[in-house]
Amino acid sequence: MFAGGEGELTVTVRMKVSPEPEGEQAVLDLMRRYRDALNYSVRAVLANKALSLGKAYRLLYKDLRKRYGLPSIIAAGCYKEAIAIAKSWLRNPKRGEAPTIKGLSMRLEHELGYRVKGDYVELIGGYRLRVIGWDRRYDDFPNRDARLVFRDGEFTLYVAKRVPRPAKYAPKGVLAVDVNERQIVVGNSSVEQRIETPVERALHYMRLAEGLQEKYSSSRYNAWLRRSGIRRRVRYFHRKARNIIEDWARKTAHIIVSLAKQSQLAVAREDLTGLIESLRKLPKGHRTALIALGYRRLAFWIDWQAEKNGVPLFVVDPAGTSSTCPRCGAELVEVGYRRLRCPNCGLEADRDTIAILNIEGRALSKMGGTLTSPTALQMTDVTPNRWGKPP
Ligand SMILES: [Zn+2]
How far is CA 371 from CA 263, 343, 382, in A? Predict the structure, then answer.
């Protein structure tokens, strides 16, 4: 999502769009033809090893135009996307069956495939969709490729834009982020804030899905019922659970990065790769899967938000952050539920506070001399209770 040249970021602007009522069927037909053409193309590309644009063009272009009735630019986008899907499937060492695309999502090349004109998006081939709303912050930057998606009865156009990468400020201190399955702890030696994770709320929907699956897998229900409506409902609950985690990760990252920016601090988070890997080795359960997803998405959004806002970011080694003394480095001993004490210097604190202090310390030592005023943490304007919770 944030690829781009040296000094540039690619951001994606989401536009809610809607075809005129009389044009909706035509747009949906086009998107269905695109999906069918894409599935056909992926198979053809794989079967003929046509992984170059020239080969794929010769193999597919005519079919995509005639058999699937795609406008020429959309046909070109279709075999390009097929090549990308085929390549990523070939790269996956654990690949199973060749991928099948089920959702309605159509790639549109900039300039040629679509145009935004006033309050309308025009697709090649004379399709028009009204723009209902979008994030206008990036209006001044030219549109790049886009993707039209139809899901849950709504159309969304995702438009890529290149924007200059903001310069990073010289941090006055560190805002450390520590994660555990129940909460995210954000802070440093002066402040601390805790944000609950939505794992339990998301789990509720996973359990609903599971309940439905169990109930209708019984042979008392006929095959038709088992196949159609129930399966859709189960998918809906799974998606709902994932959306809860995703929304939370995005909003929490936004809170963390805004806070850091406000006080000109660097954000420091642990490298979560090892943690996510170890979760993967646990017996497969919904809870572990959701926790791992939450960690992955939070790290992703923190990195992205920091990049987009010019906030310096440090990813530190997580080894021992919640078991060694942040003051003297001695091994801590447990003195109560999640409470730790240093036998050497006497420091006693909550496990999460210890982690925050260690993460802060590791980031500070990585920063070395770059700190502008190492002793004066400018946190006076941010009291913990004004930090807010993710909505
Ligand atoms: Zn100590």
Answer: 13, 31, 20
- From ligand 1's centre to the CA of 82, what distance in Å? 58
Question: What is the DSSP code (8-state) at residue 387?
Answer: S
In the reported structure, the alpha carbon of residue 318 is separated from the centroid of ligand 1 by a whole-number distance in angstroms of: 18
pLDDT tens string 229-247: 777 888 889 899 999 999 9
Interatomic CA distance for residues 378 and 265, integer angstroms = 9
Distance from Cα 73 to the centre of ligand 1, integer Å: 65
Cα 324 to ligand 1 centre (Å):
8
Q: Which two tokens stand for residue 87?
A: 């390549």
DSSP, collapsed to helix, strand or coil, labels residue 113 as: coil
Per-residue pLDDT of 221-230, as tens digits, reads 666 666 677 7
337 CA from centroid of ligand 1 (Å):
19
Report CA(183)–ligand 1 centroid distance (Å): 25
**Full-model pTM:** 0.73
**At 291, which helix (H) or strand (E)?**
helix 286-309
Residue-wise pLDDT for 155-180, tens only, equals 999 999 988 888 999 999 999 999 98
> How far apart are the CA of 343 and the centre of ligand 1, in A?
7
